[in-house]
Design goal:
Elements: H1 5-9, H2 29-32, H3 37-41, H4 48-52, H5 54-70, H6 73-87, H7 99-105, H8 113-116, H9 129-137
Organism: Chunga burmeisteri (Black-legged seriema)
Protein name: POMP protein
Pfam family, one: UMP1
């Protein structure tokens, strides 16, 4: 995912924990698709793993090219800026757009798949703010 959603979602709680139905909720076909053991074991398409690691591979290639052209200091400075920008987040129950990270990567002017169809993990369903903050702070 080109927007770094893994860093966005690492501190959040899955939304299913805050559902009104509780533990007796059925499988949500619209969000998760059909349940199958085969789909959980193997990727559904040979290019799926490549697409999941696309941004990481692109960053590695860009850093290697930058190192060859400008020296070791340039990719180190850029990686430091990436880490500083990734640390700035909104509260866990609000979606962070990470516009500064997109600007550093040069993808702020590109329209991608996630801009139109969005990621199902970032649905409009929001959990309870107090519970999510307590979970992030380790109070739960």
């Amino acid at each position: 995912n080109s927007r770094g959603t893994s860093s966005l979602l690492k501190d959040s709680i899955p939304i299913t924990e805050f559902s009104a139905s509780g533990p007796f909720e059925g499988h949500d076909l619209l969000r998760r698709g059909f349940a199958s053991v085969k789909n959980e074991l193997l990727p559904s398409h040979p290019l799926e793993l490549s697409e999941k690691n696309f941004q990481l591979n692109q960053d590695k290639t860009n850093f290697a090219t930058l190192r060859n052209i400008q020296g070791l200091h340039a990719p180190l400075k850029l990686q430091m800026e990436f880490r500083a920008v990734k640390q700035v987040q909104r509260l866990p129950f609000l979606h962070s757009s990470n516009i500064a990270l997109d600007t550093l990567r040069g993808s702020d002017e590109c329209i991608g798949f996630e801009d139109i169809l969005n990621d199902p993990s970032q649905s409009e369903v929001m959990g309870e703010p107090h519970m999510m903050m307590e979970y992030k702070l380790g109070l739960l």
